[in-house]
Amino acid sequence: MKITIGHLYPDLLNLYGDRGNIQCLMKRCEWRGIEAETIAYELNDRIDFGALDIVLLGGGSDREEMIVCTRLQEIRDDFKRYVENDGVVIAICGGYQLLGHYYRTSEGEMKGLSLVDLTTEQGEGRLINNVVLKSDLFDMPIVGFENHGGRTDIRGNRPLGKVLYGSGNDGKSGFEGVVYRNVIGTYLHGPLLPKNPALADLLIEKALQKKYGSDVRLEALPDKEEQEANRYVYDRFVPH
Ligand code: GLN
Fold it and tell me: For a Cys staple, 186 with which of 104, 167, 177, 239, CB 3.0–4.6 Å?
């Protein structure tokens, strides 16, 4: 089995170690004998979504998002087809905002991909925090770090998780991130996946199932360090 990961515009969207998410996905495949390849795209490269099994859209400053959003409009139809065909996407922070219809800031409005029915508006002050979530996708809590000025309204969509600590999508709804088909959007970085192996495996498993059939199951990995890192953050921030 093999998966191909498409990393969109790492030169521009690569805040707070998003590249670590790619390394984590690659390693977790390799440890199981699954071949994994990453293709990093620059802004003007042509993307053949048909050749990709996981797409990663990382975080960026407002300035970088502004540069990327113009190009995203040109690849939007192909990207939309990929998503509606159950392609796997992990979009972090700036990338998460650009999944939606727009990101409105004091500098102007960035048009998003409209792949998911959500919108983002810049609020007063930045939401900077450690974050712990409880997701209904798996038992292990999701831990990470957030640093965003945008407040995201996911409308009727399903959130990635309920906020146990931190601000989340908008600092008031009590929810963080979004899940739409096989797309996950989240403000959490740090990077996200090494500390959240259950989430990394969910992405890999969905990608393999789409390619090789719904009965594909990933074998469990020992994950001692990963579980300890996750547990440490949970214990530090969630009163119990
Ligand atoms: N520029 C966006 C914001 O401030 C996203 C930041 C990020 O990707 N960390 O809301």
Answer: 177
